[in-house]
Design goal:
The protein is mainly alpha-helical. It contains two helices and no strands.
Length: 57
């Protein structure tokens, strides 16, 4: 996995989790949903990069 893509995936996961938790804490469903979506985007990016790495070996 390229270091840049790995960093983007981790950032999306962390920021998404923070938004999701903040949204839940203040009762903002839109923010929680946005965070959940961003977290899922990071998960998908990480899975894609891992699949690429497996194909290289």
């Amino acid at each position: 996995m390229s270091a840049n893509e790995k960093a983007k995936a981790k950032t999306d996961q962390a920021v998404g989790a923070a938004k999701k938790n903040a949204g839940r804490a203040v009762g903002n469903d839109r923010l929680a949903d946005e965070g959940r979506a961003q977290q899922m985007k990071g998960d998908a990016r990480q899975a894609k990069e891992k699949t690429k790495d497996i194909g290289k070996h």
